[in-house]
What we know:
Layout: H1 3-13, H2 15-21, H3 23-28, H4 31-55, H5 57-64, H6 68-89, H7 101-113, H8 116-128, H9 133-157, H10 164-196
Amino acid sequence: MDLRLAAYFFVILNPFSQVLFLWGLMTSMSWREFAGIYARASLLSFGVYALFALTGDMLFREVFQVRVDAFRIFGGLIVFIISLRYFTQGGGSAQFFQGKATELATSISIPFMVGPATIWVSMEIGRTLAAPMDVLLIGAVLTVNFVIMTVAQLFLSRMKRNTESLVGAYFTILMRTNALFIGAIGIEMILAGLAGVGAISRPK
């Protein structure tokens, strides 16, 4: 297992921002209900990540007819803008989740888990590691993320109201700190895309 790639992937998943966005959902459900929905979301996300890890550049070239470098540049720009918002404005709780468990799982998976940066890192994992190690690494990171989210839900559901604001403040600090790394990853995606199209020289 490549611990560097695993840490990279985990930082981009950013469970701290997920907690803030899903706060209302986590506090309104039992642990069993939330764990079931989040497990479905994790499986949906795993399918997407595994697909890009195994197919990589070929999927972009043959199916989407898009250069990977173009995806890196545009995806990096989106990631940078999102991280800037995280850092300056905070996350904010998403209160709009309604519907069946499968619909909720899709709403959590996209856009809170699946995005340009996680897809890009999935492709990097696929380039670096041979199958099935690439898929196993992705599964391991998602499992750690799942454990953190379900433990956080268990904690939040038992938390007294007068401590909610304090705990929320701590998660906001963690999210904004993590946003610095995510922003740097966004810039790295842009630079990698520009280097791929020859706009800048690659570092030696």
